[in-house]
User: What shape does this take?
Amino acid sequence: LKGGDDVYDYMGALLVRSDVLRLQQKIRDDTTKHIHTYIYPKGHKKTPHDAIYVRRGEDIGADPKAKWLYIDSYWDAAGGIYNGVTPTTTTRRDYIPLLHYMRHYHDLKCSKDLRRVYIATDDPKAVRREIHELGPKKGHAVLFNNCHKIKFTVSKVKKILGAGVCAARYARTIADISDFIVVRTADTFVGEFNSDWGKLIRLFRLAVNQEVGMIGNRGMLGPTQKLVLGQRGGAEMDQSPVLLKDTKVAWG
Assistant: This one.
């Protein structure tokens, strides 16, 4: 551990591994039902998938730093213009578009295999519109960059709830927890880590490196065991006390 950030990550990974934070049975049942109803059909629970956290709406407006520093900087660099009459891809908006989150797929090798991508957002209507602009449709999927066949699933619309509407507030909480479960278990996660939600997702994608404890006893390892450790990534991988599941920074 080389500094405060390493210590924080290590303590976070221990917290996640301890399973101290667990859902009550009623909430666990309701989130499972929500996931199987609105996100992935029953039977696809373990289907490999990516997840993107598209931050929009009130969440952005409440964070002046994100709004004025990151969003305006993005549009300045993109040559964005103010145009309220005929919106185009260069029309400045008060958020960073989905296309920017998708840039990570440019680094991946083209494949005919279907990729499943779940998008958690507070602005599903606008995100669905942006998905249609990403590329031509291939059945229920989108051919992005003429290279990746992607089937998108967007989070359910979450209504703005007034105080005292208990059932509706509970339903929204279940939807938020369901988003969190799907996002934290994704094979690859793309998001920002300025918000508390983004930071919490990153925390729960940390894991203690089980091989670190073996490094101090390398003299006791046999030739085959040393070979296995080397094939898994060499010294750089097994010296890190904490591993972070594939996570990409969208902006910020």
